[in-house]
Amino acid sequence: MFFMSEKERERYMSFWEHLEELRWVIFKCLAVIVVFSIVSTMFVNYLFEIFIAPLKVLIAHKTVILNQAGPFDGIFIKMKIGLLCGVILSMPFILIIIWGFISPALGQRERKSFWWIFSSISILFLIGVIGGYYSLFFILPVLLSMGVESADNIWRLNDYVSFLFYWVLSAGAIMELPLVMLVAVRLHFLNVETLKKWRPYAFLSLFIVSAVITADPISLIVLGIILYLLYEAGIFICSFQKRQKSDMVDQEDK
Q1: What is the C-alpha to C-alpha distance for residues 239 and 229, in angstroms, rounded to an integer?
Q2: pLDDT digits over 166-187, tens only?
Q3: From CA 200, how far away is CA 234, in angstroms rounded?
Q4: 6 Cβ contact list (under 8 Å, min separation 6)
Q5: Which residue in 5, 50, 234, 238 has a CA-CA distance of 20 to 30 Å to 34?
């Protein structure tokens, strides 16, 4: 065992050794999130201005009044802001840690194939987070317009930050749909033909998901369209990858 190479030692690792390594991977991921969350908390006043930016116009016109309901609300708000920014900033580092865990089990060809998939996760997640954040500038006024006119919109600040927290992270996760489809095809769990046949069911299912997530008809329609466009983008990417792979096989045969 002492004279084995790194690759040979990996092959002889027992189940418990892999489990121990997985435990350290989880610990490292959590540590990265904690570190970035603490750093983000140091800039919480600046970040808070970014968080309430979608409400600035509504607050200026006194359409919405933010309320801090208890002595601990301020602490929880700052913790949530720090945690959200910590999760977003730590995503590339978490993926590097996870890649370092699974890459030894992959062959050279598989590493080349899946590395760009892992590197795309951060990009798509960031696009989703940014898109979800800026969508609030349009969605929040629509939601307010559908409320009871005689009622005052006194929002608890802690609830608004929680809403933004889950909304932005959900938007980042939703953007991963084409990548999930591609990985499923690459691992032979699905094929492009099946995805094309499932279009009507996917259309209905995605709009049902939109209805569960959103609270008004306009947001439902917008989110449903975005999800279905992502589904079509996934089919296009999978089809393109399949054609590229077949072209490589044809060149090797020649």
Answers
A1: 15
A2: 888 888 888 888 888 887 887 7
A3: 15
A4: none
A5: 50
